[in-house]
Amino acid sequence: MQHILITGGSGLVGTSVTKNLEAKGKKVAWLSRNPKKYSQKSFYWDPKKGKIDEEAIEWADAIIHLAGAGVAEKRWTEDRKKVILDSRLNSSELLFNTIKKAKEKPQAIVCSSAIGFYGFDTGDRLIFEGDPPGNDFLADVVRKWEAATDKFQELNIRTVTFRIGIVLAKEGGALKEMLKPPVAAPLGSGEQYLSWIFIDDLARMIEYALENHGLSGIYNAVGPVPVSNRVLTQRAAEYKGKPFVNIGVPSFALKLGLGEMANMVLGGNRVSNEKIEGTGFKFEYGDLNLALGEIFS
């Protein structure tokens, strides 16, 4: 029976991946600061303190590395920015150093990253994995994060990194925030592209990367059809049965409320998934209506 260790296992993506893997008969454990808190088998770690139960690494045949503080949870003060970056670098460094010492090393590690790599706003140009990084706060975080996880390859471990788009899910993610106000409306111009992926497809993609030994390197984890902010908001409102007003929330109001973080929703990226589809991965929810139908069923 294959043993899979997950960092960030209790999050939106982690719980979905755990459910999938266990349904396939795999044994899953999480790395957690509070291992007793969960019914899930868990090992202790605290990346901030540089502490980890080394037995976790010996136990694992493969690792799924999803840990990192949420980028949209709190306003980006200088302290919060430091937390966002450090949570990614410290956890990756702790894993690397512990694996380096381990007698038994995992065969593969699947890491999360983000399409934020390309910058807040790349307009309507189709973006591929080989495109350069952006030059804003989030792009800088993702570039450093990927540099930290790239080091796993030095240990001769097959490493796959997914640049994840906007995750659509029942349990949370972007839609929950978009549909919070009493009336749904586009943000800014509403024309900015959103490269989205349905949570079930993302969980299956991560599992696919574990099982397919030919996969390594960086892949965009986005669905086949990016849509504008206006289209996504309007369709989601229809499925939710919520009023939609086709007047964009002004940029200045968003910047007033969110500060620098507003750039994340005012910009957009039209990202290609050609590379992962080229490996034979098939999307079950590549159509937005299918995904929204599943979410609001």
From TrEMBL:
GO biological process, one term: cell division
Short name of any one Pfam family annotated for the protein: Epimerase
Domain of life: Bacteria
Presence of the UniProt keyword Cell cycle in the record: yes
InterPro entries: DUF1731, Epimerase_deHydtase, NAD(P)-bd_dom_sf, SDR39U1
Keyword Cell division found: yes
SUPFAM superfamilies: NAD(P)-binding Rossmann-fold domains
Domain DUF1731: 249-294
Keywords of the record: Cell cycle, Cell division
Gene3D superfamilies the UniProt entry points to: NAD(P)-binding Rossmann-like Domain
Domain NAD-dependent epimerase/dehydratase stretches: 4-119
Entry similarity comment: Belongs to the NAD(P)-dependent epimerase/dehydratase family. SDR39U1 subfamily.
Name of the protein: Cell division inhibitor
Lineage: Bacteria, Pseudomonadati, Bacteroidota, Cytophagia, Cytophagales
